[in-house]
Amino acid sequence: MKRKVAKIIEILGIGLTEIVIDLDTSLGTFNSIEWSKSENKVWLHMFHEDDIQISFDFDDLDKIDKSMVYTLLASIAYN
Known about the structure:
- There is one protein chain.
- The protein is an alpha+beta fold and 79 residues long.
- The protein has two helices and four strands; from the N terminus they run αββββα.
- The protein has a single domain, classed as Signal recognition particle alu RNA binding heterodimer, srp9/1 (2-Layer Sandwich).
């Protein structure tokens, strides 16, 4: 599923590797998603006040959250 999500990020980003979008998961609301080709990772970022950023590896999400993220991105990309 990570490859599919990375491909959608490339499509939506039009050359950029990060999309600013609110993604609701069981862990909380992430504010952006990033594809790091060099690391072969998809990172979800949460931004808080005082310039605090929390990053979370897509691979560590449970199946339901992965599916929710993919479905949301796919619905934007293919509409």
